[in-house]
């Protein structure tokens, strides 16, 4: 995984560097995310789906009033990576019911992780993940789970490098298609109902 020049070696948490910083997002950040969310999605999946469909779906998912509710929702947590005035990536967590294949205790969903293409491989994704893991531990979650499209090899490689393991598969309907997604889980020793002696999964 690519790290920013200011970080070195495993276990180092690049929560800030000269190039970018990570901060929690909350009420007031609607405008930033209403732009960043659709732009990063278009960049990531624009080749796979009609532009008009993506625009329509993103307009719903990142509508400012919807974001206002999400950002104020205590069952969610959002983090932004910023380089100066530019937002370069974000991560969100959400409490909720996972698919049945997630059997680990205390599950928390990593619901979104998007980094602008120009910033991929340069550390913000690593730092966002560290921030998300820190927040999950703060909430005493026993595991973090997510869904990733099977045709997203970069994301799958990234998650595997961060200790996520395949728990199952689900179908996500999007753009009139049925898209096979992998369900990935990472246990968080010391979280709810997890014996710290079990060590990392
Ligand atoms: C997923 C994402 C957050 C990862 O951040 P990143 O900065 O790209 O991650 P990194 O570069 O640290 O790690 C990516 C890994 O995939 C590898 N990789 C890159 N392209 C790849 C490809 N086409 N196939 C397989 N692996 C690939 C990289 O070598 C790296 O592996 P390494 O750590 O062993 O070197 C970022 O790519 C992103 O925002 N993608 C678009 C949005 C997205 O897909 N989000 C996830 C939705 S589930």
Overview of this protein structure:
The protein has 201 residues and is an alpha+beta fold. It has one domain: 3-Layer(aba) Sandwich (Aminopeptidase), CATH 3.40.630. It contains 5 helices and 7 strands. It has helices at 30-45, 51-61, 64-72, 124-138, 153-161, and strands spanning 21-25, 76-83, 86-94, 107-115, 143-149, 165-174, 177-187. The chain has a 7-stranded mixed β-sheet, with helices on both faces. Helix 1 packs antiparallel against helix 2 and helix 1 (30-45) crosses helix 3. The longest helix is centred in the first third of the chain and has 16 residues, at 30-45. It is globular and about 40 Å long. The two termini are 19 Å apart. The structure holds coenzyme A (COA). Coenzyme A (COA) binds at residues 1-2, 44, 113-115, 120-121, 125-126, 148, 152-155, 157-158, 161.
Keywords summarizing the entry:
binds coenzyme A, Aminopeptidase, 30% helix, disordered C terminus
SSE order and pairing:
Layout: E1 21-25, H1 30-45, H2 51-61, H3 64-72, E2 76-83, E3 86-94, E4 107-115, H4 124-138, E5 143-149, H5 153-161, E6 165-174, E7 177-187
Parallel strand pairs: 4-5
Antiparallel strand pairs: 1-2, 2-3, 3-4, 5-7, 6-7
Helix pairs in contact: 1-2, 1-3
Coenzyme A (COA) binds next to strand 4, helix 4 and helix 5.
Helical element count? Answer: 5
Helix fraction by DSSP (H/I, runs of at least 4): 25-40%
Domain tally:
1
Quaternary structure of the protein = single chain
State the total count of DSSP E strands. Answer: 7
CATH fold description: Aminopeptidase
Order of helices and strands: EHHHEEEHEHEE
